[in-house]
Write a structure and sequence with these properties.
The complex is a heterodimer of chains A (about 350) and B (about 100).
Chain A (H helix, E strand, L loop, with lengths): L4 E4 L5 E4 L1 H19 L6 H11 L29 H12 L4 E3 L6 H4 L3 H14 L4 E5 L16 H4 L5 H29 L3 E7 L4 H17 L4 E6 L12 E2 L2 E2 L5 H11 L3 E3 L10 H17 L24 H15 L5
Parallel strand pairs in A: 3-4, 4-5, 5-6, 6-9
Antiparallel strand pairs in A: 1-2, 7-8
Chain B lengths: L7 H11 L3 H12 L9 H11 L17 H12 L4 H9 L4
The chains are: A alpha/beta (about 350), B mainly alpha (about 100).
């Protein structure tokens, strides 16, 4: 097809491009990913497959029958209709997802702590009513531990003043507090019957945030060898807000998905979710090519299941609250086909 | 994969509890159920398999009767058939032994 083909930008807007223009964007996307993450670009066959997917004018695109993958989520349901339990039942029985996740609107482990008994009761009732695995999820969210919301000096205020040692000490103190809170909530959810815990947007506050997540996973896994522990990243590489933190002898700042996955597996995670940011000024085809390029070394070396973060603004899915299904399905299919994902 | 319509929840349980990658998880579940990995995402095939083995299904009058195991009842069977721990089943047993 040589005429204009409807396709999407990273902000979700519809544009029309020729097959040659889409092909050029895909090539530019893999080159951008290879340069940024210092990894090999996609091969010719992989690029050709992406062109076939994105040059189709079909409303929907999908993997071959038999190649379906598992879907996990960071929070399920709108919490605006019925109860949280009916939200999860609807996803199990109408949407038919493979797993669901119970969550609190204030989606961080720290604020969950004081309401944990209420959350446990919802989990307990949910477990009596649902068949599919039900996670509990929240974010490590290290920033919650800084003043004025928490007890620790605010490193975002200290760093611009050049008070580096104090900023680092504050982050190290926050790590200890966050680990305790994550483990506390996880233990409560284990007791209530949850099938697992999800540490969502790990590393959002940088290397200390990722370290807190890894240490929490290590402690949870030591107590519960068969329990589900999922970790999803906040962005494609770990920001060095501290800069010197290590886990298992590996410096955390600047790690890309393959190295992140190895540490998550070492800590004891069941499932690792890499997150690759979307450039809204580029096409979805460009973003998907870049995503696959950056994540391929991760899935090639994976020791545990990899569920790529595929949603609003990550994994090639447009940054829009109502992402178009044509773009979501293309991004999902392309990533599953090229990366041999275990899930999304 | 289709969740309760197929065997998506069962494959997910192998990823969560045994940290199996997808091909291994599908092969394990297929072997335990006596089907092929490709069958696991077929809702027609799996509706029969799930009902025969009491692994749960969509609870409507078109898909289940009161003789079908659902929810916590189904999870007791899932734990046994897949030979994996299901935390809610462990709790259920602990709270209903009469001890």
């Amino acid at each position: 097809m040589d005429g204009p083909i409807p396709t999407r930008m990273g902000d979700g807007s519809l544009v029309r491009m020729t097959r040659a223009e889409i092909e050029a964007d895909i090539l530019a996307g893999t080159e951008a990913g290879a340069k940024r993450a210092k990894v090999p670009p996609l091969g010719e066959d992989e690029l050709a497959h992406l062109v076939d997917i994105f040059a189709s004018p079909a409303r929907f695109s999908a993997v071959d029958i038999g190649d379906e993958v598992i879907l996990t989520s960071d929070g399920v349901g709108s919490q605006d209709a019925g109860s949280r339990i009916t939200d999860l039942q609807n996803y199990e029985q109408t949407v038919c997802t493979d797993t669901v996740e119970l969550y609190h609107h204030d989606y961080s482990f720290k604020p969950i702590k004081p309401v944990l008994p209420f959350e446990q009761e919802i989990m307990r009732q949910t477990q009596l009513l649902l068949t599919i695995p039900v996670h509990y999820g929240a974010m490590p969210d290290l920033g919650r531990y800084t003043v004025p919301d928490g007890p620790v000096p605010n490193w975002s205020q200290l760093l611009p003043l050049g008070r580096i040692d104090e900023a680092r000490a504050a982050q190290e103190e926050a790590v200890e507090l966050a680990v305790d809170d994550i483990v506390y909530v996880a233990e409560g959810m284990y007791e209530a019957g949850a099938d697992g815990i999800n540490l969502d947007t790990a590393g959002a506050a940088g290397d200390a945030d990722f370290l807190a997540s890894l240490r929490a996973i290590e402690r949870i896994r030591a107590r519960h060898p068969d329990w589900g522990i999922q970790i999803g990243m906040a962005s494609e590489f770990v920001l060095g807000m501290h800069g010197e933190l290590e886990y298992d002898g590996v410096r955390l700042a600047g790690l890309w998905p393959a190295a992140q996955m190895r540490l998550a597996a070492k800590a004891g995670a069941s499932v690792f979710g890499p997150a690759i940011n979307v450039n809204t000024g580029k096409t979805v085809a460009w973003n998907v090519a870049r995503t696959c390029t950056i994540v391929k070394p991760c899935t090639d070396a994976a020791e545990i299941p990899i569920h790529l973060n595929g949603g609003m603004g990550v994994g090639g899915v447009p940054m829009h609250a109502l992402p178009p299904v044509d773009a979501v399905s293309r991004a999902s299919r392309a990533c599953v086909d090229l990366l041999k994902l275990d899930g999304l | 994969m289709g969740g309760l319509r197929t065997a998506g929840d069962l494959v997910a349980r192998m990823q969560l509890t045994r940290r199996m990658r997808l091909p291994e998880a599908k092969a394990y579940v297929a072997d335990r159920l006596g089907v092929t990995p490709a069958d696991l995402s077929d809702p027609v095939m799996m509706s029969d398999v799930r009902r025969e083995r009491g692994l749960g299904t969509i609870p409507t009058e078109d898909t289940a009767t009161v003789a079908d195991a659902l929810a916590i009842e189904a999870k007791v069977n899932i734990s046994r058939v897949l030979d994996v721990p299901v935390r809610s089943v462990e709790r259920f047993r602990a709270l209903t032994t009469g001890a």
